């Protein structure tokens, strides 16, 4: 019963999305107070409520393990802990698409309920765009991936008890990214709404900004967490593989990064109108593309996709309609949107434009490197594009961008001169040169890590320079946010460069009692213990690790064998110091009875993820600062209006 | 060193790539004694695709085949071969797909031409915006 109610709610939500679309379209044609146009906002709010109800229904059937529902039977099990029963609701194709559309509908309901700054016509057009995008996903769910489908005969027991997938990180990583994607869908709808009604104004940018910032924060966190998960789980010390799935989340992030800077310029300077709209369209296109790559199965094999193309083709068609439609609209309207305020090259806007162009180029490189192998595979030519391509080619654009990023926040808006900030420029240049000389003294540091290390230090210092000569107590919160996010980039960059320049690897075969060296660590194999878990057995290596002859710490990495299904995994151990991590993995027994160990010393590797967290925190501060200021502005406006009304009455 | 490598080659070359329950090849999980050679081998391994995995290099994989390939790379580097020769040998054997570093060819030229186009586009965009002393 609950499943049918959820299914019905989904149909009704889809119908309301149609209403939203029609109401918005008529509103644009006939005016915002005519006919059904006034239903836009109520329809969006009701649609949000119905989608939320459908998702709650799905959570419910998973919570009670209703095995007559096909999705539950395939992905859950009565013996699962409750938290993984619930996370199982979105840990599959259908459920995750329902989560996507629910979050999207709730976001639409939220802007319908609270956003009052924009002209009503623009809001209706925005909600119509939101409804139009949502409609595609409702169609996808209802026609090709119904999560509430029943089995003719209920299953006796669910199939999903794979312990490897019962991981709290795995349960919350995909929704984080999805929420980010959805935030960009709202930005997209605003962009389409503003284009349709020719209202690309600072107010529009202010309405769009919190959504872009929020999406950016979530994408940053999602990518950071995913990278750390790959790092500790895969057991070989790698943290970024330029894997298509990773690129699928990196591309929207790059676009969102460019967009959030551009939207800030539009909000405060009324410049970069066309560029902001363009990035709004691109950012959501990249989210859709990411969803397509991950959800369609095209990555496993282009040919597998061609054999069973139903779902993939559906997303591909949606992709073509939305991206193509938005780009067409953009092409038709771009000429009629004036560029906005002008500015000179030596200005804050100038630096931001430069970096936005660079970010877009990096995005284009990642897109090219990700899609090209898929394209050639369709013609039976298999090509691999990996780190040796992505690293140098993206660095061509990233290095100048990072250098400009150090300088940009020091410049004034509109018109400035590099002469005014010559001292700061000299300081940044001096740090870069000193860094290059210092790190070149170490043996075997390749050119890219070398540049990365020097730039990271310069950028770290430069990110605090905007604070000089300012009253720190009265500084807007959003400036703190910018400083923290830029410092986070420097921190992460230092971690990446240091990891690739200074990592030490040691593959050792030890008898019990023997020791080996890796970097400054001495690791002694103290004993081997068999260990058993609920559905696995393991060989546990008891080791003593001592840093530069200091007090030894006990570590115990395991090599686990699961028996159903038979699978071998490694439980690596990470020993974290302030200046890096020791990464220990237990291997198997060699022929001569010695035990194989894999050890890495990775100096400052943790900074990669600390940097990511700092960036996200900076984004959160920026949201708080911006929203607070917008609310204040709104209450001032209201007071002025009230006063004006009073004056009128007195007259 | 070279003698040892030649010996190893003779002993292992034949069954090294056999799949199944055979014990892992010795240099799958063992480093070369010469740090410079090991570094060269490591750098090469990070740019070779593990054919049995999804998007992992042979330096990041527990798959037996990746282990065999690591072994091949190490003994060939130890025997004094240049890393690019080892790559060429592997590409001949497994196809271009095995190498993560695309080289310019009739099939891959867009990968290299398009970034140059991006650079030119950037130059054009920035020139249009800021060039000629426009404000």
UniProtKB/TrEMBL annotation, chain A:
Domain of life of the organism encoding this protein: Bacteria
NCBIfam families assigned: nrfE, PRK10369.1
Pfam families: CcmF_C (PF16327), Cytochrom_C_asm (PF01578)
Keywords: Cell inner membrane, Cell membrane, Cytochrome c-type biogenesis, Membrane, Transmembrane, Transmembrane helix
Domain Cytochrome c assembly protein: 90-296
Stretches assigned to the Cytochrome c-type biogenesis protein CcmF C-terminal domain: 316-626
Major localization class: membrane
Places the protein is found: Cell inner membrane
Membrane topology reported for the UniProt record: Multi-pass membrane protein
Transmembrane segments: 6-28, 49-73, 97-114, 126-144, 178-199, 211-230, 250-267, 274-294, 314-332, 353-375, 395-413, 425-442, 448-467, 479-497, 607-627
GO MF entry, a single one: heme binding
Any single GO CC term annotated in Swiss-Prot or TrEMBL for this entry: plasma membrane
Physiological role: Required for the biogenesis of c-type cytochromes. Possible subunit of a heme lyase.
Annotated GO biological process: cytochrome complex assembly
Protein's name in the database: Cytochrome c-type biogenesis protein CcmF
Family that this chain belongs to: Belongs to the CcmF/CycK/Ccl1/NrfE/CcsA family.
Organism whose genome encodes this protein: Qipengyuania nanhaisediminis
UniProtKB/TrEMBL annotation, chain B:
Family: Belongs to the CcmH/CycL/Ccl2/NrfF family.
Protein name: Cytochrome c-type biogenesis protein
Key words of the record: Cytochrome c-type biogenesis, Heme, Iron, Membrane, Metal-binding, Signal, Transmembrane, Transmembrane helix
GO cellular component: plasma membrane
One of the Pfam families matching this protein, by short name: CcmH
Organismal lineage: Bacteria, Pseudomonadati, Pseudomonadota, Alphaproteobacteria, Sphingomonadales
Gene3D superfamilies assigned: Cytochrome C biogenesis protein
Domain CcmH/CycL/Ccl2/NrfF N-terminal: 24-130
GO MF annotation list: metal ion binding
Role description: Possible subunit of a heme lyase.
Signal peptide residue numbers: 1-18
Residue spans crossing the bilayer: 109-127
Biological process annotations from GO: cytochrome complex assembly
UniProt key word Transmembrane helix: yes
